[in-house]
Amino acid sequence: MAADIETAVVGGGVIGLAIARALARAGHEVMLLERHSRVGTETSARNSEVIHAGIYYPPGSLRAQLCVGGKEMLYAFCAENGVTYKRCGKLLVATQADEIPKLEAIAATAAKNGVGDLKRLSADDVRALEPQVACVAGYLSPSTGIIDSHGLMQALEGHIAASGCTVVLNTEVIGIAAGDDAFTLETLSGSERGSLTARNLVLAAGLGATALGRMLAWRAGYTQPETYPARGHYFALSGRAPFQHLVYPMPIGAWLGVHLTLDVSGRARFGPDIEWCDSVDYAFDEQGGKRLARFESEIRRYWPALPAGALNPDSVGVRPKLYREGEPVADFAIHGPRQHGIERLVALYGIESPGLTSSLAIGDLVTRLLCEGHERP
Ligand SMILES: Cc1cc2nc3c(=O)[nH]c(=O)nc-3n(C[C@H](O)[C@H](O)[C@H](O)COP(=O)(O)OP(=O)(O)OC[C@H]3O[C@@H](n4cnc5c(N)ncnc54)[C@H](O)[C@@H]3O)c2cc1C
Description:
The protein has helices at residues 14-25, 62-81, 100-112, 123-129, 149-162, 209-213, 290-300, 337-340, 355-371; strands at 5-10, 30-33, 50-51, 85-86, 90-94, 119-122, 137-141, 145-147, 166-168, 172-178, 183-189, 192-203, 228-237, 246-248, 260-262, 268-270, 275-276, 311-321, 333-335, 345-349. The chain has two domains: 5-46 and 150-225 and 329-371, FAD/NAD(P)-binding domain; 90-142 and 228-321, D-Amino Acid Oxidase, subunit A, domain 2 (D-Amino Acid Oxidase, Chain A, domain 2, 2-Layer Sandwich). The strands form four sheets. Strands 1, 2, 9, 10, 11, 12, 19 and 20 form an eight-stranded mixed β-sheet that branches. Strands 13, 15, 16, 17 and 18 form a five-stranded antiparallel β-sheet that branches. Mean pLDDT is 96; it is low at 373-377. Helix content is 27%, strand content 27%.
């Protein structure tokens, strides 16, 4: 039995879009299915829009490799496709002497990851670049930048359409069955149920990845990863930001600390903080003013002149973590037949930061996983 389509991608965030584009470029006939009325309204719309250099991640991890490779692919894609971006650079700062060993350890990790352009700075060097930043030492990461993430997703959608492939909106996948030759997907569009068959299947459902995967009968011996949401709140700075670079304090475990990011229009935001939670909730919780007080005190460690009353509650993003609070940090999980044993299926879990930076590299990786070792129909 011939399948209705060659390859279905479930999830229209930046990762599903980048995968669909890469598969279309490789000659696949692709249909991308997204449950909302627009692409990129969940995690891909609620992040810091930073093109990360690849500084912090464990050497050899997928996060390190895909970030370092994906960063240059993303810069090139933006330049070729008119997506707004800026290689503004980032300052990584130690605000007290006892943080210097951590600062140096991060620089060593960056070098192992192939990030060879970090520049060591004294406190005076940092002040020369950013007069309002207080610290005892720092590094400049020149290859860190910022991107218009919505412009990126629009451009990816345009590439998919130009290849003759389709993005189907308002369509939720509610059932999946793996057959010998094809997957059958049950769908819900409004109140209308439907079904279609696809020879290859990619699950790129972000926070919904584990729920989606539960629809499949996995082979014995494979346990699909669990997703644990962790919220991150942002405050926006009112008025003009007195900064040209992003500013990051020392991380606390896997959390990058309350850092300063700029968007391509020059607006400054602080955050995201981290709050483990049981379900996905985008409501901003002010905690009766406690959250603001915590942000102000963290920010004043590197920006003592932060004016009182300058921060306004902004957005909330939710990270799809693959570990619980206190557990070892997990890598991206991009599982193909070698992991789960189901031919022609790739499922992605835990694509948190630096997923946006890595998106194009992930697209290429998934394409290789689907194309390698399989006869094309
Ligand atoms: C607070 C925060 C800050 C971040 N900052 C950065 C950053 O600065 N730089 C960086 O590189 N990365 C950053 N990231 C990571 C980056 O945002 C993510 O890696 C990326 O957006 C994940 O994209 P996605 O497509 O996997 O998920 P999503 O954008 O969540 O897309 C998944 C899509 O799947 C759809 N879906 C789910 N289930 C179904 C179903 N059953 N049927 C149909 N559709 C379905 C959803 O509707 C959704 O649109 C950040 C993440 C967070 C949370």
